[in-house]
UniProtKB/TrEMBL annotation:
Its main location: nucleus. Residues 1-20 form the signal peptide. GO terms for molecular function: peptidyl-prolyl cis-trans isomerase activity. Keywords: Isomerase, Nucleus, Rotamase, Signal. Residues 214-257 are annotated as: Disordered. It holds the Pfam family Pro_isomerase. Gene3D superfamilies: Cyclophilin-like. PANTHER family: PEPTIDYL-PROLYL CIS-TRANS ISOMERASE-RELATED, SPLICEOSOME-ASSOCIATED PROTEIN CWC27 HOMOLOG. It catalyses: [protein]-peptidylproline (omega=180) = [protein]-peptidylproline (omega=0). This is Peptidyl-prolyl cis-trans isomerase. Its EC number is 5.2.1.8.
Amino acid sequence: MLLFSTSCLVFVASVCIILAGEVVLAKSEYETEIALVTCGTTKGEFEMTFFRDWSPNGYDRAVELFKGGFYDHSHFFRVVPRFLCQFGISYTDNAALKSKGMKQIRDDPLQKSVHFEQGTISYAGSGPNSRTSHLFISFMKSGQFGSNPWETPIGKVTKGYDEVVAKFYAGYGDMPPWGKGPQQQPIYDGPHYIEDNFPKLDKFLTCKVETKVTKGSNVPPVSEPDIDEEDPYGFADTSDSRDEESDDSDDAGHDEL
């Protein structure tokens, strides 16, 4: 007997298709936003494209920070060949913007149709609802990335990967104890720690952001507010992330991103 889902009686933008006795809810088209983020660096210019329907909470945070200049002149402080390039510790004098970057945001659902490739961009988190401002660019396809909800991709490098991103200085290796790169805690005190001790590391110059509306095909995105002290559901601790960080677990490690 062929059973018809009552969901077919609801008028939505999707199409209900019956195949081999099963009701399939076809993906609907809707308008969504993308952001083209063009950044100058000490190696040249590259472009990232962020997709809001991949990760609405992550997208909104990243676009707001890039528009505000949060990442301008900050270093790519963790560059590990065949692994990742990480950034996200700001030198801005804008106290409100810096505070915004410290606030944790809720995880977005993992998109099964979006996979990690070389150049994929995601947040470097340490657990559920831990994303703040730290982002990384994947240097490898899939691997250990993408299995945790805080690793939902938000975009990808669309121009300049080989010419710029792949050439960021990686000679210091990973952070201790896996390499001789910088500790992360001292970077929060300003650029001098890296400039004095790791002078070859590359950095952003300035970035510009262009947003535009396009057609999406994933689940229509719904963003949620940042996590803060007033969160009635207790999704996450809201203390300053620097106070919670340690040298080997403060963000994306070899076992956790």
